[in-house]
Amino acid sequence: MNIRTDILVRVYLAFGLIVLLAIAVLYQLFSVQVVEGAKWRAMAKKYSTKFVNVEAARGNIYSVDGSLLATSVPEYEVRIDLMAGGIESDKVFFEKVDSLADKMSSFFGDKSAKQYTRILREGRADKSRYTLLKRNVTHQQLKAVREFPIFNLGRYRGGLIAVSQNKRILPFQSLAKRTIGYKNDNVQPVGLEGAYSSFIDGESGRRLMQRIAGGVYVPVNQDDEIAPKEGADIISTIDINMQDVAQRALKNQLIASDADHGCVILMEVATGEIRAVANFSKTPSGNYEEQFNYAIAASQDPGSTFKLASYLSLLEDNKVDTNTMIATGDGTYRIPGHTIRDSHGGIGTVTVKKAFEESSNVAIAKMINAAYQNDQAKFSENLYKWGLNKKLMLQIPGERSPVIKNPKNRSWNNKQSLPQMAYGYEMDITPLQMLAFYNAVANDGKYIAPIFVREIRRLGNTVEQFKARVINEKIVSDQTIRKAQALLEGVVLEGTGKGLASPLYRIAGKTGTAQVADANKGYKADKKYQASFCGYFPADNPKYSLIVVVNNPRKGTYYAASVAGPVFREIADRVYTSDVNMYNSLNGQKFVANSKMPEAKLGEKKATQNVFKAFGIKAAFGGAGEYVKTDSNSGLANKNIQVIEGSVPDVNGMGLKDALFVLGNSGLKTQVRGSGRVVRQSITAGTRVNKGVPIILDLQ
Q: What's the burial of 596, exposed, middle or buried (CB within 10 Å: 0-12/13-18/19+)?
């Protein structure tokens, strides 16, 4: 055999071996995929694993005083591995299964013991390693469940599987609910929850899961492979006490007026921080609930509250002064295609100041028409220059853009638009946009955008702080601002809002009663009105600005002074009495322990100390009693009132709330006559009595 033949033989042999190997490989693949495919696929399913995201606990939302507005709490699904090591033996399982079922039934009360037993026994028969027993279990409940039979065998031997989930709760329930908002997948974000979700959400963790029979994935380990990181906390500007006052006052008025909806916004003048915002809609069932944020998203004709802007324009352009005389005639003013009317008839020839106080539509329409008829764009330019045509760029989503026309708009009518705009028609402005403008007047001309969030914190450390954005450092001159402030105060002292005047502090503001246009039928359909009052207090040193809007009141009058005004006054009164920083009457006065003390109700010692401290009153608080009674004549500042079980306490001089609390703790049943503070009690202090004995209190 020559060399060439030898090489060919070797090649053929090598090729043959390769072919045989290829055939063997193909046969093996065929065998694995077809002959043994079912077996290996079953094993793959049995042992396949995957990582899943573990939701992080969302950060908390706090009120400005530290109260918790929204938080996440863990909830659990309680499941059981019915093949766990401690119950592998049928004897152990069947000895204890009924006891576990009894415990679950009596503890949760959602199923009978027989139902729980059936679930457990059927799961055992199916060799289930992930049987669901109970959803929505709290952390405290889970601690108790761990001590139940079978589960108390240990972390792994007892088969207990607790699947953690986060539940968002609002500790104050409906208070500021719409402002707090929510964040749901595939839903437009709402409120602070939606706007700051990138901070609140935190970072998800990861957990290794293994698929078991039935295609169910169970955790491989009890702990997460990568722990989630909690979200940051939001410090809002909301004051929970002011929020409560605002919601109660608004809701009561909506019920009394049978109105469609309404809103209230309370804002701190200097900082722009929103202290309270309430929105209520009438539901088909007749109740009032927070369903829509009218404060920031409902824009329509503001009506007479807009007259403030019209007067500012006239005063700043030197078109009129507050003592200029204007004739209102019989209370009508005819313009092409329309007659403008004063709601209560003509007021004759009056000063510009008086026309504002009486909210004359005729007066302002005449003055604006006369001043800007030959240069109609100038009026709109003034409004634009101040920033009234722009969004406030709020920290929460949903703000509607204001609509303030100018002669370039297609809908502009050279004969009607100017005088109509003068008293708040042919435009769209939200309640918060209107309030922000009034706040600028209270703030001596500084126009700032309201804020809802003061700070973001992570693990107690400040991440970001927020201050109000300045829209316009000075909307008009100081002289014009002072005149506008006098006009607003005059409304409450001499004009349409004089029923709102308080003997304790001064209020400045403007009433607004506007006819609401129907989207399809205009103003000629069934007449609906919007009543509003916008202003600030105390007028001489503004601390808070406030707007109240009530839409379509059906019962009684629809005029703003009678519908929106009382809500404004109630909120202002409550805020004024609760904010000690607004009191000036004691400034400069000093009190010492042996001075004559100011009169004070008998009440809780800690609360009395806080009030005295706030007013700079130095008082000697001796003794260990929880309740004190101020003695204005003795050298001591107070006397201690001690509560002794089984003995009638002395509640003379207490307010009703404190008296009921003290007597209730003593086991007495209280009957009350009159109002004010306690002046007499039917059982003498110190008398030994049994629980349940009635005691009568006379209050004056």
A: exposed
- pLDDT tens readout for residues 290-323: 999 999 999 889 999 999 999 999 999 999 999 9
Q: What is the DSSP string of 419-474?
A: HHHHTT-SEEB-HHHHHHHHHHHHTTT-EE--BSEEEEEETTEEEEE--PPEEES-
Structure token pair of residue 48: 């396949």
Give 417's DSSP letter.
H
75: which residues sit within 8 A by CB, 6+ positions away?
136, 137, 138, 164, 165, 166, 167
Strand partners, 160: 80
* Residue at 142: amino acid letter: L
Q: What is the pTM of this model?
A: 0.71
Q: For residues 422 and 405, what is the distance between their CA atoms, to the nearest angstrom? A: 12
Backbone angles phi, psi at 594, to 5 degrees: -100, 15
Domains in the chain, please, with CATH?
Answer: 52-236 (3.90.1310.10), 243-580 (3.40.710.10), 603-699 (3.30.10.20)
pLDDT computed for residue 640 by the predictor? 59
- Per-residue three-class SS string for 82-108: CCCHHHCCHHHHHHHHHHHHHHHHHHH
Contacts of 363 by beta carbon, 8 Å cutoff, 6+ apart: 326, 328, 350, 352, 355, 356
The structure tokens 């900082």 sit at 271
What tens digit of pLDDT does each residue of 57-101 get?
Answer: 788 899 998 888 988 877 889 999 898 888 988 888 999 999 999
Span 102-157, pLDDT tens digits? 999 999 999 999 999 999 999 999 888 889 999 999 888 999 999 999 999 987 78
CB 174 within 8 A of CB 290: yes
**Edge-to-edge strand ranges of the sheet holding 669-674:** 669-674, 694-699, 678-681
What are the E-state strand segments in 254-365?
261-268, 274-282, 288-289, 325-327, 332-335, 338-341, 349-351
Amino acid at 285: S
In angstroms, the CA 182 to CA 69 distance is 12
Distance CA(691)–CA(665), nearest Å, equals: 10
